[in-house]
Structure formats: structure tokens, C-alpha cells
């Protein structure tokens, strides 16, 4: 197989973790006779520093011409506390999602028995937790009209959804549910929001097409409780953009190890793979960041190419390092290995 | 002291828990020589059933003429899954908040050492947790323009904030912080939303007036993680309406006992006190619901009247029942006491 991969190293620890994924992908290519061609491109604070633009046109171009995108992380604190900043790193990521129509963000929530001691939750809470969150990624309040007046005494953001925007991500979520435990939970705020009522209506109308899937509905405030109190009840969770941002990060704490959670953002053509952790600037350049989130994202990328066997081997490599205590500082602050060492070990394993 | 209290029993378990609070308030009145005059009024599903209107004008009238409002719970599942319902119980509560300008919802997050076994979090996580959430309650996406087209293929909700709306709740939160550990955390999504950038700007501008308070900022997705991973870092948390709905319910799981968490919603004149649990229709009429959330809300009401000593005695009564294992079924499914018994015990204690 011959594939083009756009690589966006991004900000903070983005470059060093992504480099480990490339090592692993190279090992996969060599072992299984594939060719992966990488093209590096810029986005985020890094792109602003170098070009003044958080998402240069060239990056969009490269991504559109690639079979998949491997992405590190985005963001720099110097932009966060300046309400007047004209250009922000995050604009790059948001524009990329929109330009490539990456309408579904997919986040598996899984736990590792050998890492249970790291979880803030009790062991009982972690039993049988295995769900996946589908977050709509190119609509809602993120992309609605936003305005503030000259004197900055007033601001607004508009949240809107069309039936089509809801349907395409919903179909994907229903299809995943059919391949899993056949349960789909829509998280919304239908007792208050008009957009939520549209979501609920559309899901109710699609449900008969997936009659083997049991559908239920949860208000987002209740969902925020249930995710902690009884996470095993969930199979596939579907929600709109803003709620998805909040509850998928909330759910990421369950495993106790943010550093090893992957994600995929998919559209009709392109797909982008990134660890869920942020740019974590304090750790940048120290070779201490956990590369497993990125490497497991690379496994999702292999699945996306239909290379399921290869993806499986990468996942086994990851589990092998965890079980043999080859872990980074975030997992074991005393006996830890470097980012690059973990990358080497998994590449060798493959 | 002579005070008028509007009583809204509301839906589900609302009536039976509120009745216990009235018992306790009556005991306080008798013991300390006060007079509390109650006027019952309707809101929610109960009001729809009886009048067709989730908030009859008479209820607003009574509330405006009272010194405080004691409220049970709202909501009935028959309205939740009907995206076409014209009248909803929740509209009553939202309209009441707006009519009385109850702009700040205040929720203390506290843990009870003797109930630690009920928490989904590990004991380590619960150490030193003591914070309070200020949620803006009469603005944002809850009260913005909402629309859907005739064919229901499109919907929108508008989120807006003015500087005044932010300032009034912020001043209150800053003042609380000054009386506590002097830390205020604003939760927003300033990397995406224009309204969040206005919030951040206003808080930055007010901060010098409260120079003894340390201010920090957290994106809501990060806050959703931090509340579980490291809750003791918080003192006063301030946020807008929708984010507050989500993170205050999320934070309520920390203690492991939803049934005993109180809340206050305050404005310039009126103030409303309610347990944070919902109407929980499955338990209604069975005398098994936990009345402590309502009774602790009544304690907040006494504080609001300046009756701090009386409030303290009620809180001691609550702790006394918990420590002596006089608890409802949600706390101890085997050896439990009835709702009304707990009410009697605390009234006697007072
Ligand atoms: C960086 C930010 C704009 C982004 C978002 O809110 O979508 C991030 O939090 C995420 O979840 O990918
Ligand atoms: C009932 C509902 C409208 C309400 C809200 O979302 O504000 C409730 O969840 C709350 O938090 O008081």
C-alpha cells in the first residue's frame, strides 16, 4: 500500500510525540511492505510565528492531497489571556476542520487495568468501561456568527444546526453502535435549546433505520454526572460540538492517563489523527511527554487505511510497553523512560 | 423576625422533601421566636396540569411579595422526548429566574467524611475539597433568541452577554472569594467564543478592585477534567449559564450524595432556595427521597435572612443525622429511614 500522510507537528510537545508515531509507522511500512510518504506542514502558534497565519493555504492544500493527517498538538499560553489577540493558534485547527469537513470527532474511552491506580475514580467505577464519543465537529456555536460591539460592552455567539449536519454524524454513530453493543445515547439540552430539540427529532427519525440499536437521551448536565458515576452504561455517545468538547475531555479522566488517549476526526474524504492531550508547553523539548496518545492515534490512522492487522500490532506494542513498565514520567514519576525511548521500543516491537 | 416565604412544592419528589424543610423552619421559628408565613404557589408540570401554564402570573406575584422562595423540584419525563411540545415545565423555572432577576446560582461543593464510601472518587481526591460555584443564571444561550424553521430542517440558539450581566454576578463571586480562600477561577471558552472573551476581559478589569483575590482562567473542557482530577485547587468558580449548568452538576458527584446538596439563586431582591436534585419521578410519593438537600437549602435561606445562628443549628442537625446513620435509602439501601422521619428528627434536634 502506498499512502500520502500530511504531518502537522504543531505546538509544545506536538513535534516530539508525533516523531515517535512516524518511527512506528516507518516500522510498520518496512515490516508489512507499505510506503508512507510524509509531507510536513504548519499550523497553530508555530505557523503564526513562522508565517503570521495559523493555517497557511499551503497546509490546506497538502492536507487535501493526502490520504490522512497526523497531527501533534495546538496552543500557546501567550494567546490565552489576551482577549484582544487578533490571531489565535486555535483558529488554525478550527479552519482546518471546516476546510476538510471533518465533521465527526471520535474518541474511544478505554481503561487499562494496569493503570487503574492512576485513575481518580474507584476501581468499582472502572469496571467494564468501554465507550466511544462521537462529537459533531464542524457546526454549532464554534462556527456560528460571533460579534462584539466597538466598546466591548456586548458580545454574542450563534449556535446553529441543520438537519444534514446532524444526520451525517448520526449515521456514522449509529453504524458504530451496530458493530458494538448496539446502544446510542444522545446528549443534548432539549429542555432548553432549540438546536437540541432538532437533534432529538432527527435522531428519533433516524432510529427506525437502525432498529437493532437502542436509543436513549440524556440532558448534558445529567450526562456530566453519569460519565463519572456510572460510565459503564455507555456504548456510543453522540453529541453536538460544544457539549462534545466538554464531555469528551471529562470522560478522558476516567482512565487516569490523559497522555495515552487517541482521537480521530473524520469527514467524507480526509481524516485527521491526534492525541487528545494539549500542547503542554511546560514539558516541550524535554523528551518526557507521553507519546502513546499519538502512537495510538497512528493506530487509528492505520485502521482508516484498512490496515487493521497492522493497527492491532501497534496496539499490542503499546500494551506491551505498559505491562512491562516502560512508561513516561506522567505514568511513573520515579522509574520513567524518555519519549524517544518509548518510540524506539514500540517501533522495535513492530 | 417576621418573614414571608413563597413555597413552590413543584414536581416529583419536590413536595415531600419541601415539607420536611417547612417542619424544620417551623421548629426554628418556635425555638428562636420568629414568624414565617408560607404561601404555596404553582410551577412546572404540576402547574401545567392544574392551569395549563408552567408559571401562572399569580406565582410571580406571590414570589415578588415574599422575602424568599423555597422550591422543591421541576420536570416530568412525559415532556422530555417530545420535541414538539409547546409547553414545558422547565419554562416555568426559567421564566421565574428571569422575572425575579435571579442572576446568580450559588452551589457549595462540600464532602462529608462519613459518606466518602459513596463517592465515585478515591479518598485521596476528596481531601480538602471545599469550593463554591457561581453560575450566571439569567443570560447566555438560555435566554437568547431561539428559532427553528417551519419544516424543522434548521434551528438556532443565540448566546449573548452584556458587560452589566457579567459584572453583577462577578462582583458577588469576588466578594465571596474575599471571605474565603481568596481565589477566583473563571471558566470559559475564550479560545473559541466571543462571549467568553468578553467574560475574560470584564473579569480582568474588575480584578484590581479585589486585589487580595488571585484570579485564574480555565477553559471549560479543561475545567471538566480538573473538577475530577484535582478538585481541591478550587475556591470560588465563576462561569456563564450553560457551562455552569454542566460543571455544577458534574461537581455534585464529588460528594457521592446528590440528595444532600443545596443551592441558592439570588438577585437584587428575591432569592430562591432549592436542592440540586431533580424531580426524580420514580421515587415520588414513596417517602424515600432524601430531604437533606432541601433542608440544607432552607439553611441557606436562613443565612439569607441573616439568621446565621439558626442556619448553623440546622446544619448541625443534618450532620447529626448523618453521623448517627439516620439516612434515607439513597445513602443506605439496607438500614434506611423515611423522608418524613428524617424531617422529624432534624426538627426535634432544632
Ligand atoms: C483547541 C480547541 C479549539 C479545541 C476545541 O475546543 O475543539 C480542543 O479543545 C479540542 O477539543 O480539540
Ligand atoms: C431544569 C433546567 C432548565 C435547569 C437548567 O438547566 O438550568 C436545571 O438543570 C438546573 O440546573 O437548575
Automatic annotation (TrEMBL), chains A, B:
<keyword id="KW-0560">Oxidoreductase</keyword>
<feature type="binding site">
    <location>
        <position position="249"/>
    </location>
    <ligand>
        <name>Mg(2+)</name>
    </ligand>
</feature>
<comment type="function">
    <text>Catalyzes the oxidation of 3-carboxy-2-hydroxy-4-methylpentanoate (3-isopropylmalate) to 3-carboxy-4-methyl-2-oxopentanoate. The product decarboxylates to 4-methyl-2 oxopentanoate.</text>
</comment>
<comment type="pathway">
    <text>Amino-acid biosynthesis; L-leucine biosynthesis; L-leucine from 3-methyl-2-oxobutanoate: step 3/4.</text>
</comment>
<feature type="binding site">
    <location>
        <position position="135"/>
    </location>
    <ligand>
        <name>substrate</name>
    </ligand>
</feature>
<protein>
    <recommendedName>
        <fullName>3-isopropylmalate dehydrogenase</fullName>
        <ecNumber>1.1.1.85</ecNumber>
    </recommendedName>
</protein>
<dbReference type="GO" id="GO:0000287">
    <property type="term" value="F:magnesium ion binding"/>
</dbReference>
<keyword id="KW-0520">NAD</keyword>
<keyword id="KW-0460">Magnesium</keyword>
<keyword id="KW-0963">Cytoplasm</keyword>
<dbReference type="GO" id="GO:0005829">
    <property type="term" value="C:cytosol"/>
</dbReference>
<keyword id="KW-0479">Metal-binding</keyword>
<comment type="subunit">
    <text>Homodimer.</text>
</comment>
<dbReference type="GO" id="GO:0003862">
    <property type="term" value="F:3-isopropylmalate dehydrogenase activity"/>
</dbReference>
<feature type="binding site">
    <location>
        <position position="245"/>
    </location>
    <ligand>
        <name>Mg(2+)</name>
    </ligand>
</feature>
<keyword id="KW-0100">Branched-chain amino acid biosynthesis</keyword>
<dbReference type="InterPro" id="IPR024084">
    <property type="entry name" value="IsoPropMal-DH-like_dom"/>
</dbReference>
<dbReference type="GO" id="GO:0009098">
    <property type="term" value="P:L-leucine biosynthetic process"/>
</dbReference>
<dbReference type="InterPro" id="IPR004429">
    <property type="entry name" value="Isopropylmalate_DH"/>
</dbReference>
<comment type="similarity">
    <text>Belongs to the isocitrate and isopropylmalate dehydrogenases family. LeuB type 1 subfamily.</text>
</comment>
<keyword id="KW-0028">Amino-acid biosynthesis</keyword>
<dbReference type="GO" id="GO:0051287">
    <property type="term" value="F:NAD binding"/>
</dbReference>
<keyword id="KW-0464">Manganese</keyword>
<feature type="binding site">
    <location>
        <position position="107"/>
    </location>
    <ligand>
        <name>substrate</name>
    </ligand>
</feature>
<feature type="binding site">
    <location>
        <position position="97"/>
    </location>
    <ligand>
        <name>substrate</name>
    </ligand>
</feature>
<feature type="site" description="Important for catalysis">
    <location>
        <position position="142"/>
    </location>
</feature>
<feature type="binding site">
    <location>
        <position position="221"/>
    </location>
    <ligand>
        <name>Mg(2+)</name>
    </ligand>
</feature>
<feature type="domain" description="Isopropylmalate dehydrogenase-like">
    <location>
        <begin position="4"/>
        <end position="346"/>
    </location>
</feature>
<keyword id="KW-0432">Leucine biosynthesis</keyword>
<dbReference type="Pfam" id="PF00180">
    <property type="entry name" value="Iso_dh"/>
</dbReference>
<dbReference type="InterPro" id="IPR019818">
    <property type="entry name" value="IsoCit/isopropylmalate_DH_CS"/>
</dbReference>
<feature type="site" description="Important for catalysis">
    <location>
        <position position="189"/>
    </location>
</feature>
<feature type="binding site">
    <location>
        <position position="221"/>
    </location>
    <ligand>
        <name>substrate</name>
    </ligand>
</feature>
Amino acid at each position: 500500500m502506498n499512502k500520502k500522510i500530511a504531518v502537522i507537528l504543531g505546538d509544545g510537545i506536538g513535534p516530539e510525540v508525533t516523531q515517535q508515531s512516524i518511527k512506528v509507522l516507518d516500522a510498520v511500512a518496512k515490516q508489512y511492505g507499505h510506503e508512507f510518504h510524509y509531507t510536513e506542514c504548519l499550523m497553530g502558534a508555530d505557523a503564526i510565528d513562522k508565517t503570521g497565519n495559523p493555517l497557511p493555504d499551503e497546509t490546506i492544500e497538502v492536507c487535501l492531497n493526502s490520504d490522512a493527517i497526523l497531527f501533534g498538538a495546538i496552543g500557546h499560553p501567550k494567546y490565552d489571556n489576551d482577549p484582544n489577540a487578533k490571531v489565535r493558534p486555535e483558529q488554525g485547527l478550527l479552519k482546518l476542520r471546516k476546510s476538510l469537513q471533518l465533521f465527526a470527532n471520535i474518541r474511544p474511552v478505554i481503561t487499562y487495568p494496569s493503570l487503574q491506580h492512576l485513575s481518580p475514580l474507584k476501581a468499582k467505577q472502572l469496571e467494564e468501561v468501554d465507550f466511544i464519543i462521537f462529537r459533531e465537529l464542524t457546526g454549532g456555536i464554534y462556527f456560528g456568527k460571533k460579534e462584539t460591539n466597538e466598546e466591548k460592552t456586548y458580545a454574542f455567539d450563534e449556535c446553529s444546526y441543520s438537519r444534514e449536519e446532524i444526520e451525517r454524524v448520526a449515521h456514522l454513530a449509529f453504524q458504530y453502535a451496530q458493530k458494538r453493543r448496539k446502544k446510542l445515547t444522545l446528549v443534548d439540552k432539549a429542555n432548553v435549546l432549540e438546536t437540541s430539540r432538532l437533534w432529538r427529532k432527527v435522531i428519533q427519525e433516524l432510529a427506525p433505520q437502525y432498529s437493532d440499536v437502542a436509543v436513549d437521551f440524556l440532558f448534558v448536565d445529567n450526562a456530566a454526572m453519569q460519565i463519572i458515576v456510572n460510565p459503564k452504561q455507555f456504548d456510543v455517545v453522540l453529541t453536538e460540538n460544544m457539549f462534545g468538547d466538554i464531555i469528551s475531555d471529562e470522560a478522558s479522566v476516567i482512565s487516569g492517563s490523559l497522555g495515552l488517549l487517541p482521537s480521530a476526526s473524520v469527514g467524507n474524504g480526509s481524516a485527521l489523527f491526534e492525541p487528545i492531550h494539549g500542547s503542554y508547553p511546560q514539558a516541550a523539548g524535554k523528551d518526557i511527554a507521553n507519546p502513546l496518545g499519538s502512537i495510538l492515534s497512528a493506530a487509528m490512522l492505520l485502521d482508516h487505511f484498512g490496515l487493521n492487522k497492522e493497527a492491532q500490532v501497534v496496539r499490542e506494542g503499546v500494551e506491551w510497553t505498559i505491562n512491562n513498565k516502560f512508561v513516561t514520567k506522567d505514568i511513573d514519576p520515579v522509574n520513567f523512560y524518555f519519549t524517544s525511548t518509548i518510540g524506539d521500543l514500540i517501533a522495535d516491537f513492530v
